[in-house]
Amino acid sequence: MKVQSAEHFGKRIIYEMAIDDGYIQNYERSVNNGEVCLNNSDTIRFGKFPVLTYEDDGPVGSYLSVRYVNNIVLIGDFIFFVKLNSGFETYTNFLGQREHGWGGMMESKNSNDAFLKHEVYLIPESSKTLSYTNLHSVPRLFWGRTENIPRGVQLFPDSESYSAAFTTLQQEKTFGEPQYKRLNETTLEAISDKIDHVFGAARVYVDGFGWRFLIPNKEGALKALDVLKSTTDKEDREWIESNDMSTLTEYQRELFNKHFAGN
Hints:
15% of the residues lie in helices and 38% in strands. The protein contains 4 helices and 15 strands.
């Protein structure tokens, strides 16, 4: 079947996959093929990758916890890949290790918390093919434990959304706020309402620079990132205000005011 996004700035995310609530294979639920279609002509292909990855949550492996929710994300003029960490300390990778010491058990803290960190990557338009295992070949904007994750168009924003997609696919009616609509028997479209962009400029957290607006550039995403690193919030604000501010949605205006509050 197919899960897709609505079109956003001439781009659409498409996942070809099997959605079911059955047995989890190889500790993951996978997309058979993920791609971003650009203006209905060009395509960036990601191939197969896990939407959800799991780890054992008990000493006998009786429970599984979600470790990562992986997504292609569209925000304004840009494409990102986000590895959202669940934040749970699983049995195999917990921070506090128990060790036998003189007189009984002792607590030993492991300072390596890398397994709990989120990752955000910027995907250039020139990346016609990009594998999940080769994400290090594109710029990583953010790596950390805090909730500095941008919001955008994505197909599975959290682990519960996978179950929501299965329910939408199998049932005529769903309860609560819908996350998907069924276009036909084999296609779902994800509903995205909060997207962190203003006039195509994506609000993202960049390590070493904090929260910034990534401004669209005619030379592409990599050039836009170079410009961000050589400018400040002042230039970002001037670029945004050079557009017609009266056309902003209520959410975009709140985003703008929140970002530049006090500046």
